[in-house]
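Lay summary. Proteins are chains of building blocks that fold into shapes, and those shapes determine what they do. In this project we predict the shape from the chain. Here is one chain we studied, written as its sequence of building blocks.
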Amino acid sequence: MSHTDPTTQGVQQGRYTVVPRTLIFLTAGDRILLLKGAAHKRLWAGRYNGLGGHVEPGEDVLAAARRELAEETGLEGVDLHLCGTVTIDTGVNPGVLLLVFRGFLAEPTPVTASAEGEPQWLPVGEVVNYPLVDDLFVLLPRVLAWQPGQPLFHGSITSDADGLPRLAFSA
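And here is the predicted shape, written in a compact code that computers can read:
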């Protein structure tokens, strides 16, 4: 049996599974790079979120983060650090596992738009005044407080009785 054989990895029908996705936040001084979702997007059109997307088969998570960053902004060669994980309970199987990355630049770098939306360098101190994806109001302070060398943070998102996302972190 090989390492890629599902039976050797304990993969069984009915077990909880997750779809891996990257979520990337770059800062440069007092600016943060967020993506304003394109008007045609089914989810989060016109709202600001981090950059990122799905991990493709055979791709490691860092390579996926670098690829997504290049696809959505044109930026390459940025040093990215895994700073945390967030599990999203979608209410069905599979859920989503966000692998949250942070990058630090000396100054805002020119970026290019993509089909996903328009990346924009926003003032960190004013970001809460923009139409953010709901969970960013809780996630961003955790991401911005994280520095290389610190332990990763771990959180989970569930929905409350009104269907609104609730983000909680492990102690």
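What the prediction tells us: Residues 19-169 form a domain with the Nucleoside Triphosphate Pyrophosphohydrolase fold (CATH 3.90.79.10).
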